[in-house]
Amino acid sequence: MRSYRRHPLVVPVLLCALAVLAARPAATPEEPGNTGTGADTGLSAEVARLYEEAAAATQQYEAGREEAEEQRAEAQRAEALLDAQRRHIAALHEDLGRIARAQYRSSGGLPVAAHMILAGSPDGLMRGQHAFAQADLAVNNAISKNRRAEARLAADEAKAAAQWQALEKRNTQLAGLKADIEQKLESARAQLQGQADAAVAAGACRGAVRLDQPETGFGDGDWVAPVETYELSASYGSGGARWSNRHTGQDFAVPIGTPVRAVGAGRVVKVSCGGAFGIEVVLKHAGGYYTQYAHLASVAVDQGEHVSPGQWIGQSGTTGNSTGPHLHFEARVTPETGSAVNPVAWLAARGVSL
Questions:
Q1: Is the predicted pLDDT of residue 15 greater than 50, yes or no?
Q2: Three-class secondary structure of residue 316 per DSSP
């Protein structure tokens, strides 16, 4: 057995090393390359989950509203047909009344049966009887037919009205659910932005906050828009007091916490926070081009990581020199600012129309 006497300093050195390791604080999320804390991850995941739920609730509500409008229109069409049928029956009744009055006037007030009895010949008797029977049958058939149609239309009207009322009731419930989700999402967004602002103020990124990635279905050669649902705001090359020269990217107006996607396959070459761009991610793509995603509220990737098209790399925010929630997107020929090209044309050349 090896003797510690031959190395009298080994034990003290080992004890000192253990003491230093025990006293050293655990790696913090502000250190580059570290993932976010459990609280950070939970909040970001909650925002992403609520974002998806709000989108689904909105879609359900809009689909239900459109269905209710169709049912209401159907009920209105049934009511219009029923009114027309009622007017037709009233007209038939009026025609029957006119026939009866005309017969009374032409017969001198005698019953039709008496005129038949007093007919001058058997042929005249038969013709009179047949004409009267045919007229009476035609009017009665028409009235019966329209009454049946009226009954069907009334049933259809009641059915359409009941369906419309049921849809309206369901839409009221969906509207309440949608409002509740949006309220929770707004609160979570505010907390997420507060964490992002604190990180930017400290000049220390919190590290990657891993999110459950959706199934994108995109291949390595595909290109996509950096956000799925958006409104375009400030465009490339536009002027304004916020920029020292011209606007170097394309802005996408989206709420805080909106998932930001890698537009194509690439590698993360920069994750930073602080400065005019706030929290930002820069990707390198094949062909020597780079894309930048700025003013984020959180990042979901680490420097050096490879990403696929449509992968969530962060969540939008309003950090840095930003007047409101949006994503600042750039296409560049170098990883640094000042080398931007028109991102709309750059994406269009890759099959993405904004």
A1: no
A2: strand
